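Q: What does the assembly look like in three dimensions?
Context provided by user:
Components: two
Sequences:
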Amino acid sequence: MARFRRIKYKTYGLRPYVLLFMIHSLLLANPLATTESGNLVGTIRDAQSGEKLGWTKLYIEELNRSVTAHDDGQYHFYELPQGTYHLQVFRVGYHDRKIKVSILAGQTVQHDIKLTENTLYTETIVVEEVDDVQSIFEQPDLQVSGGKLRQNLGQTLAGTLDMEAGLSQRSMGPAPARPVLRGLSGDRVLIVEDGQRTGDLSATSADHAVVIEPVNADFIEIIRGPRALTYGSNTIGGVIDVTHDYIPHGLPHRVTGTVSMQGETVNRGFVSGLKLTIPAAPFAFSIDGSWRSATNLKTPKGELKNTGINTYNFSAGTGYYRQWGNFGAASTRYRSEYGIPPLPAKLGGHPGGVEIEMERDHYEASAELYHSFALLNRSEFTYTYTDYFHAEYHTRGVSPDRTQFGVETHHLQGRFYIPECGCGRKGQLGFWTEFRDYSSAGLNFTPNTTERAAAIYGYQEFQWKKIALAGALRYDVRNVRPDEERYSVFLDGLIRERTFSGFSGAAGIRYAFAEDWNANLNFFRSLRTPGVEELYSEGPHLAAYAYEIGSANLNTERGLGTEIGLTYQSEQIDFKGTIYRNAIRGYIFPQNTNQRSFQRNDLFVYRYTGAHAIMYGAEATGHWHMFRGWNIDATVSYVHGTLANDEHPLPRIPPLQGKIGLYFKSTRLKYGLFINHADAQNRTGQFETATEGYVVLDLFAQYNIAAGRLLHTVSLRVNNLTNTVYYQHLNRVKEIMPEAGRNVKLLYRFYF
Amino acid sequence: MRYVLKFLILSSIVASLILYSCSESTDPHSDDNEHARGIGIRITSSGQSVVEYEGDGTLTGALTVAEGDLSVPYMFMLIDEDGEAYTPEEDHHELRFEVADTTVTTVWQHEGEEGGFEFHLQGKNQGETTVVFSVYHEDHPDFVSRDIPAQVTAANAN
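A: Here is the predicted structure of the complete assembly.
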């Protein structure tokens, strides 16, 4: 692929100073140098056979430390401050457990743990030996990990999560897919990696990929409700947190890691991944690398041109662990080349498609400090710097036609954790700051823009008998400053500096009204400030096949979300149902005007518009353990979106969809089938194409076995077994090609 | 508690550094001001408008040439947001053409003047087709026109 001159930034020279200053200030603070510490060790065993269980992951919540047990089942935590903590235990094929442990100063506490086989599909945590009621708000709305993550592992994060209730994927070819939650897309669904923003542009356009490679992810969580507000003010759709642990969160006893390899037939794709954690007490080092390559996607109607992908991701990190806390740093390099499939000129596309080159360099430094104050037991500080760049181009005549985007982002945030006290459960205070420098070049008239943002927030949970409460409050301010101030005949309003601010908040209540039954009610008040592209865009966006025009007068989006849920959980049945309504004033979206651009007659104009949008819907998830390892799993979700001003349907809203699966599960083996269904979507936005319904059949099988010092896992999956022709409503290029045809995927991973 | 206070103060200073020390950004496209802007075109011959449209207004006129002949010289101009017609600076821009049916006509420019804003049509076969004009700036089109009708009339008797 041709390479273009990269956008050049001014060198701020700020990075090293910020890092040094931060470390210096932490050392000055050095609050707990005198805290006494102890160790925690033990062995993990099968509850029935007594067999030692290696490769078990253990995590201490309050200290944010984790280790993996070795092949002989032994685990070791060193230099833990004295106190009582919650220890979570995860093992492939076994129920997760959560237990309470006490660390005594100067002593090594031996705590052996027994795990029971998990023949249920449900992967909820079994809470035992914990006196107090577990924080229900702290639990993610959804967690994809272990066997479930391996089973669903796709080419992208969106593809990996696509099987979950309420989730769909916005796509424009397979590479730039991004998750959509309850019909909400863009940055209304915040995607973070190890709790930190990615610094990419995936939220701004359908052709921009998410810079997260899923193959080495430890687990993926979806967080909704009050806790989501600690990540951002515009998280009405939720937060997707992908945990890689680029900075190791614990000091392992020996070298641990995984090696993964996956191949698939539909695009002759291959991905390999390596993840290593190396101890050198009191340091730990981590290496995470992956490489992915795929050719054009095959569909039942032929090959979808220009949909290949070539991506690599490499990260190196280190952590320094003492009884008073830890420091860590990591850097990540992500490179990707992918294509956007061709779209005929009459639809505003490029007959040859568009190529995209994407680069991201990410640096992170963090510090965690343990405290024994009455109102503070842990503080956490993180600084990140991200340098993101991508170029879009296609060949038109002799010379290529190109657009470039570059973003430099600095983040600094602090989180202060409040210990349990009386009826008060976990709490958190925090601050967050951002500096963002946005540049575009090539055939684009969007001015270069700098943004400064800051926020403070608080979050607290309470527990009183069978009632749990949680609340969060956040204040944000954002200043957006374009390099130039000017009028444009196209844009609505003067291109000028804008400042936005406001409160957001959330509250939730959960009531255990009967044994195994819970009801919950959540309110969410969101605040979303318009992005640079939404305010000032003016020019062709090649890969989006659009001439985008912003509106400099756009105001903040203010959403009001209400959610009512019911859960039932017993030995055999697990059910969760939710109905919700999200009303968003000033909902910003690119509206297709169905008009050709005056400037670029080959492209349609998409104009960013603020409107009053109302979305309501329902989703349900159920698991039924029938007998002898046989299970049924089902999900269904629906969302209805309307522009309140003119009662037109909102564009790009997924149809009614669901799945049902039947499978057998034992400790080592799991196999079954899933039937996926989506209804037709005829409620379309202006100039949007309707989509027919479909039914698609998937098969899968998994097997894991411990041999020597390795735990081997194999996952086989056949997607779209019958090679059905079907179209996803949120696919921007659905007019030309259906979704992928029959695909056989084989994943081999071993843990050591 | 004083440690916490000390840390908060220091962190605030770091945050302030991030928010306010990073000042103006560098313009990554030094050629930004040289983009050709237009909301329409005017093609003239001997100073008279032959083809013209502005914004979403009606396109008037057509380019013509006789079969086997070279047309009169045509001059391509953009119409800016104020309604003024202008010729983009030739040092930084060039005119390119896409003819829908090159068996009907092609675009011809004098040797050494390729990419300039003056052009001729070469009539090949009687009929009608369209031409899309693009104003290129370095390696990308700043402007792409609508389909401009081009007619090749019967060959002149003499």
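Follow-up: Chain A touches chain B through 62 residues (CB under 8 Å).
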